[in-house]
Task: structure prediction
Amino acid sequence: MEYRGYDSAGVAILNSKGLEVRKRVGKLSALIETIRQRPIHGQIGVGHTRWATHGQPSEINAHPHTDCTDRLAIVHSGIIENYALLKERLLAGGHTFRSQTDTEVIAHLIEELARSYPMREAFRRALKELRGSYALCLISADEPTRLFGARNGSPLIVGVGKREALFASDVPAVLERTRRVVYLQDHDVVELSADGVRITTMEGKAIRRAPTRISWSLAAARKGGYPHYMLKEIHEQPAAIAHTLTNRLDAAKGHVTFDRRTNAFLDRLDLREQLVLIACGTAYHAALVGEYMLEEVARLPVDVDLASEFRYRGPLLNRSTTIIAITQSGETADTLAGIRLAKEQGAKVLAICNVVGSSIAREADAVLYTHAGPEIAVASTKAYTSQLTALALLTLYLAKRGRRIPAAQWHRLLEGLARLPKTLERALASEAAIKVVASKYAAARNFYYLGRRYNYPSALEGALKLKEICPLIHAEGYAAGEMKHGPISLIRKGWPVVVLAPQSSVYEKVISNIEEVRARSGECVVIASEGDAAIKRYADHLITIPKTEECFSPIVAAVPLQLFAYYVADANGCDIDQPPNLAKSVTVE
Ligand code: AGP
Result:
């Protein structure tokens, strides 16, 4: 689970000595070393990799957290919003706290309640007092053959193996042991024991949840010979987008389709009504490209919002609004809150999502799965290009349904989309050349990225990739036409500016923006279409990409942007798969 948080880690194991705990600050490898030196054994335990919310990364703040008597241990993902009040009460009741975390209150709360109730009941009663989000697991020396778990707003699954069961926050963690997984839902309370998996409501009423068989292979969740997951996932993009297109696009027959539920959802839409795309981070950049596609090609009215803004700005929604939530993990807290808000106000929700069975996939009215396979690197790559591919399919479906696209254009786009896996393979062939350009700029500390129209979001995404995995660098993406309204003041000799200039309806405008940068002695790394001889004289360094339809150009341009960021970060010795302060899925606010 290290990609979910990696500032500290710990385990607690129950055995004949009682509860044994090992914790370390830093990567999981540090904890593994400690356990090598001071081994612990047992058949039941809890472990956790932390992404700090309350209290800085330290051994004391690392999970598991124990009660005053060290008889029970808790691991928790999420935030307990009323922890300060609970802590005050527990301190007054004589409990001693060791950490600054919100999680520790849960351990003491259960300890307190276990004085009056059996552990199962104490656990349930404690949950009822918690406000906020949690996926949590508990072991107790008083119930040495049981593992307790619960979820509310944070992902938790149960892997059902042969004579064993496991809790985890995400599927890759259990793939080595089992492919049978139960996706827990909010307010589920679970007990794992030799008797099996027992799921109940908070009130103790039994619930049946059938296991799902996971199709992801273990190899898909491993590095497969690449030095980093990010590089492996960049290279997986032709296959990932081919999966997004499979059984949905038939260019020969001129056909786009989805599963029955999604088709029915799309066929019911009133195409005069507003579509609102919500997402976070890279998925938000995909949403921005989606806006251009849906408006230009399908002629639909579209709004785009960051989920973290959307949920608090009091959006005007009604039964005719359609929300399209875009998310790799399907667990991002802001996006989840956004769709819940929208549903409360009667809006319909379509999710574009990678993780089958995730919270957003379950709560949406229909899902368009991207089928990109597990994405482990914190920096999103194949999830992004497969989201764009899904948006392209959606655009074509709705354009046809609304009869808003001339037949010739429809067929041209369909063929361009079908060719995309091959086009991306060709884009990957420039890797060595991109590495050379990246090495020239490895020492630069400020970058601008510029693009217009479909490639304005590409500029944002290119800059995000670089600053995300190379924390030494400040990078900003701008709409190229905005430069003159402020950012251009920073340009000086040698300042690297990555410009997206593939053949497009705004090509000449972009050339003018390059001229403006060069007039101020900035250096342009230009990403242009293959065969564009004229652009050479404007570029300090040229990276070429295969030609495609303008609306698909961000999918192709993503490849050199990702590789450029990767090789700049690599040359700087950055921790590419686990950049500081970040985590793969942001399941807290
Ligand atoms: C992308 O490289 C980031 N790690 C991040 O911006 C991510 O895209 C964002 O947190 C949204 O995640 P989601 O797609 O799982 O909802």
